[in-house]
Design goal:
heterodimer; A: 11 helices; B: mainly alpha; 2 strands; MetI-like (chain A); ABC transporter permease subunit (chain A); membrane (chain A)
Chain lengths: 277, 323
């Protein structure tokens, strides 16, 4: 009786909560199929704004740049984040560890205007001293994104390393495997799903970043969020509705398939664990 | 010799196996460990910590019509090294109501956002954490999906709703609740709504992972001992979820203080938030030293909550490490 009452309340909470989260996005998608140039006035169904979007060379160029930066930044941040995760989860105490951990927490919560401005000033100073990086653009954006994303990667990898069963690693090393070999043969395969999901997380963070990018980009480099921002600043724009709808579609497909994969990996892992026990 | 003696007992065998494995990390790796640690460490020092020193430096500088548009702190004339620290930026900052109002306004906006996110997020996280295991994963994914969707897209979605000719006004007019469209867009209210919408997932996730770990037997025990469900909630669930509440609140509050995109897109031009002030000083006024001073004061405000959050998280991780 009471159980049912609670789940009724829970259902109400979930319905309202999910409605709050999804109704704005659904409205956005519906209006991307509006033929009118006025976003909020419904005329008739049309896919013309998608045609406009696909012929917009600025959008396509910005998208290409964003994808390239996101791929490179997530690759690098997964490498650095995994190393940092290993250092924090496996090496015990070492000198400067708390500073290290602190520098990994801060970029995640620190307002991005702060991170962006400070990195920009660094690059300007470096250019003054060494003449490098001569121009702000893809390289400087990439460095900024790696710094942001590696913090997130580290959190994911570190907690995975802490919860995994260490006896397998210990057995391998006891049988004479060097730590590096142990890492590649034992640890890495075990944490592979966590690495995949942190790659995905880093990719979405990078491709979505606006503020840090705005500080670190130069005249030649405009990423997709920068382009969207500059257009949206001028007001509602049905082409952006179309672009946003595609973003939502892509993210949804990616997240759902990643979720499926991860759930399957998790099931396989627990089955293996049961067999082993 | 010693080790052979020890290995005669199976339990001792296991213990030394572990010990030896641990030793292997230590013996072989000091150099390797240092290398592994040095790469991310060096990266963060160079690209995260050192830049703050530059911000600190520039905040004591003066604007100049030059490129870069500020005066160097150090200058040398003959054999004399001159250090010029200009405190003017800070004096100006603390003397001008514009900056103080922006700081206070941002802190207020961030606090209210945090509170509303907590009130909305807690029931959602609680319901998902209590849901049967088969549904839990799907529900969590549904809640987190908007978080993975572009931040800008989520802000933009509200622009179409809150616009003066937007959907909300149309709906209210149709229902006959209002006669003339309300000014919703570019108000404090619009900033508040969109802030809550954008930051809600940051509250739900830590709350969920905390509540999911809650031992259901404690609630059963409370009920057996005569607690009503709401009493059990207030006296068992709520205190036990403190870590989740703190983490969620910090994850919303800290970045919300410096939010720039939302006040820029849906906010009022008059009432500024500090993130926007920083942006304007830098990009519009080209006053880098002032932007530096604004940043340093913001960091000073946020360093306490950031450290608090960090210490708590580290403590929990240290416990996990020992297990």
């Amino acid at each position: 009786m009471q159980e049912k009452d609670i789940s009724g309340f829970g259902r109400l909470v979930l319905t309202l909560g999910l409605a709050f989260l999804y109704v704005p996005i659904l409205i956005l998608i519906v209006y991307s199929f509006n033929s009118s140039k006025l976003v909020s006035v419904w005329a008739e169904f049309s896919t013309s704004w998608y045609r406009v979007l696909f012929n917009d060379s600025d959008v396509i160029a910005a998208f290409g740049l964003s994808v390239r930066i996101a791929l490179l930044a997530s690759l690098m941040s997964v490498v650095l984040g995994t190393l940092a995760g290993m250092a924090l989860a496996r090496f015990g105490r070492f000198r400067g560890k708390s500073l290290f951990a602190g520098m990994l927490t801060a970029p995640m919560v620190m307002p991005e205007v702060i991170t962006g401005l400070s990195m920009l000033l660094l690059f300007i100073q470096l250019k003054d001293w060494f003449g490098f990086p001569a121009e702000r653009g893809m390289l400087t954006i990439w460095i900024g994104h790696v710094t942001l994303c590696m913090a997130y990667v580290t959190v994911v990898i570190r907690s995975r390393l802490l919860e995994m069963d260490r006896s397998v690693e210990e057995a391998a090393m006891d049988l004479g495997a060097k730590p590096v070999k142990t890492f590649f043969l034992i640890t890495l395969p075990i944490i592979a799903p966590a690495i995949a999901s942190s790659f995905l997380l880093a990719f979405t963070l990078s491709i979505d970043d606006l503020v840090i990018t705005a500080f670190l980009s130069g005249p030649g480099a405009t990423t997709l969020p920068q382009l969207i921002f500059s257009r949206v600043r001028l007001g509602l724009n049905p082409e952006i509705n179309a672009l946003a709808s595609i973003t939502v579609l892509v993210v949804t497909v990616l997240v759902i398939s990643a979720n499926r994969l991860m759930a399957r990996a998790e099931r396989r892992r627990s089955r293996l664990a049961q067999l082993a026990a | 010799m010693n080790s052979r003696l020890l290995t005669q007992h199976p339990a001792a065998n296991l213990a030394t196996a572990r010990g030896r494995a641990r030793l292997a990390w230590r013996r072989w790796l000091p150099r390797g460990q240092a290398l592994v640690t040095a790469m991310p460490y060096g990266w963060l020092l160079l690209f995260f910590l050192v830049p703050f020193l530059f911000v600190l430096g520039i905040s004591f500088s003066e604007v100049e019509v030059a490129s870069p548009p500020y005066r160097a702190l150090l200058s040398r004339s003959e054999d004399v090294l001159n250090v010029a620290l200009n405190l003017g930026n800070y004096r100006y900052l603390f003397g001008d109501a514009l900056y103080l109002d922006a700081y206070l306004g941002s802190l207020q906006m961030a606090s209210i956002t945090t509170l509303i996110c907590l009130l909305l997020g807690y029931p959602i996280a609680y319901t998902i954490a209590r849901a049967p295991l088969t549904k839990r994963n799907t529900l969590l994914m549904l809640v987190m999906l908007p978080f993975w969707t572009s931040f800008l897209v989520r802000v933009y979605a509200w622009m179409g709703i809150l616009d003066n000719e937007g959907l909300l006004n149309k709906l209210l007019l149709q229902l006959g609740l209002i006669d003339t469209p309300l000014q919703l867009m570019h108000t404090q209210l619009s900033v508040q709504i969109v802030m809550v919408y954008a930051y809600l997932p940051f509250m739900i996730l830590p709350l969920f992972s905390n509540l999911a770990k809650l031992d259901g037997r404690l609630l059963e025990a409370a009920e057996d001992l005569g607690c009503r469900p709401w009493q059990a909630f207030l006296r068992v669930t709520l205190p036990l979820s403190r870590n989740g509440i703190v983490a969620g609140a910090m994850l919303v509050f800290i970045p919300a203080v410096g939010e720039f995109v939302i006040p820029e897109l849906v906010g009022t031009p008059e009432s500024l938030m500090i993130g926007k002030v920083l942006w304007m000083e830098f990009f519009d006024n080209n006053n880098w030293p002032m932007a530096g001073a604004v940043t340093i004061v913001m960091v000073a405000l946020l360093i306490i909550p950031i450290t608090y959050l960090h210490k708590r998280e580290e403590k929990q991780l240290a416990q996990a490490e020992q297990r």
